[in-house]
Amino acid sequence: MLSVLVLALCLFISGRLSPVDTEETSSTNEEIEDTTSTTQLSGPVFNYSETNPELEKYQDAWRFVTSNESFLMTYRNFNTNPTGENTTICVSATMIEKNETSDYVLHNVTFLNMTSNKTVSFTKSYYVISSECYTTKNVLKRNSVWHEHK
């Protein structure tokens, strides 16, 4: 679920989400917190912004993943090293294919592994779906595991 927050950050960095957009909402932080759904799992309580319809206009994942524009990846929610160290830099993704009927996207992703000093490339496919109560497609549903190209 953090991916949508990363998406919003990337949209902001790329200029697709401006401070003017954020001023259009009349919600306060307290109102948003009150309307964010809460899911009880076997432990902590999670509040997901992906289920708050007031935030829907900032979470258009389809527009983002089908864009041909470059963007700077400032944060991400995974590590590639078993020790938790971030050993990859220069991450880029290029759209190879999209199917607007099935909301399918295929990307070629490349990054530099700083440990081996080698560039790694792989394909990653997604279906873009909507959260419950949303009309905007705001969630990336992973379709396949990565296929490394050497």
Q: Can you lay out the helices and strands and say which pair or pack?
A:
Elements: H1 2-13, H2 19-23, H3 29-35, E1 37-40, E2 45-48, H4 61-65, E3 88-99, E4 104-113, E5 118-129, E6 139-142, E7 147-149
Antiparallel strand pairs: 1-2, 3-4, 4-5, 5-6, 5-7
Organism: Ixodes ricinus (Common tick)
Pfam families: His_binding
Keywords: Signal
Describe this structure in words.
- The protein has 150 residues and is α+β, with helices and mostly antiparallel strands.
- The chain has a single domain, classed as Lipocalin, CATH 2.40.128.
- Helix content is 19%, strand content 33%.
- It has four helices and seven strands.
- It has helices at 2-13, 19-23, 29-35, 61-65, and strands spanning 37-40, 45-48, 88-99, 104-113, 118-129, 139-142, 147-149.
- The radius of gyration is 17 Å and the shape is globular.
- The two termini are 31 Å apart.
